[in-house]
């Protein structure tokens, strides 16, 4: 209860002064000259002035406010190591029990490190969580904070935190912990496919430098080498990037006896493989309306080096022109098809026919090139059905279909087959979604019989139009019409010739994204997303092996023809192994080599500076002889409420600040000169003055 006196004048201050000041001066003059009755006149004047000032007696009823105390609990993944979780739970329960005895504290508990956001899982951000607790609390009401953590805090300030109250840290773990870890020192983000990539790494141990360690090097899950590293020294590493797109390079070391965890015994680097320019040989049999369609497309692709020849003067064309007067160059058949054929990633025969330009033996070389992993595309025209068809050469061993000799000149809309709707080369072609495709017609189809491989597009009378086949280790494509240039010229609105031709070429050159059977996975935040590309109707569920070794089944749902997807919300950061049928994939969830696992040894050092700057303390929870107050196996200090100017920590206690803030609940108001009491006092003073003046 607080008491006070307040004045509530009945007159305004100017009017009060105008009335009272002259009377006060007269009374003071009377007192100065010691006139008779001047003292009574002065007292009567004071009584009149007091009644006009209207003094009021106030009695305030107030309720003391509580100091806000934050208990910040570290629930990051490093706290799962050893007995740290148990120590944390016991310390939290003990602190809550002790703080419950003090009514002057408002205890708020916040757990950090369990957010769904990946960046909050990979770093221990206790001060960000603490800032959220005190956001709505006035500085005068902050009593302090107690952190239960292993000390590996990644947002600790270098000095005092923003609040002016004691900060105490209780450290889980033990003093003499042992750990060994590996990390990349230098890992380029990009590398050329098939070329060595230089990297550096380091093995770090709490026991010092010098000991030799075997390091397993894996690329995309396959062990490629075992390196010998010296602990503490930067080590050089050279790996060959096998695939275009994302590649995962992993380093691993064995767990040491007595080591805290093996979670940081692995290091990951993601390297995007970039192909060197693909070399394509385009051979046009003769000039025709669509000859430049393939050339323009391939020349516009920055990743392609194109060599293009057009047979303008076949051997049978003899017009008597002297050789030295011809501006044409001779077709370098031996150089292209014998000496350098292995240098090409793709050979395209565009309306080519056998005219003895190539010796018959060279077709065997081309077939062998395909069998050994090369790529061949036949863009067929009427000549494929004629007497000089390349199907009548030894190249027929590599071809997916033999001609019937029939050329169908009939208007038609190219359409996708059921297989083509799922095949990555033709799936989702712009304009293919409707029954009548939104592209122009073609007018010629080359008849074939007994097609092998996959028929992904059909032409007139449902005849095969686009064939894709595998021969040995290589691939062959056959486009059974020379009318694709109509799409390029915009006839009847044109069509997706660039999209189609580019997909055909890149499928033949084994672009991973265009594989019919492909399993990929990617981590987005803490979500593992799985994508299965397949020609089957149901690939079945995917099996996921988590970084901790658990196996989880993920159902794959059909997203579009040939595409099945699934997702898994995860709680672990690290490398996941995904399997479906004979296919496997790797995916990393969360940031690569997250700080949460870079150093897992508990420490007092990171929180020492901010704690000491506030008058707080940092101490371990593991029992010691200096702390007698034990709570379930952990050494908890006593809690002492302290004033703002008092010390906030001792050998076996921690102090939390109390506040002087309060809230006003009620006010009792009693006017001192109000009612009969005030009137009686005023009459008594004036009556006494009148009585004295009357004598």
Automatic annotation (TrEMBL):
Domain of life: Bacteria
InterPro entries for this protein: Class_I_gatase-like
This protein's UniProt keywords: Membrane, Transmembrane, Transmembrane helix
Stretches that traverse the bilayer: 12-33, 40-58, 672-691
PANTHER family: BLL2462 PROTEIN
Name of protein: Glutamine amidotransferase domain-containing protein
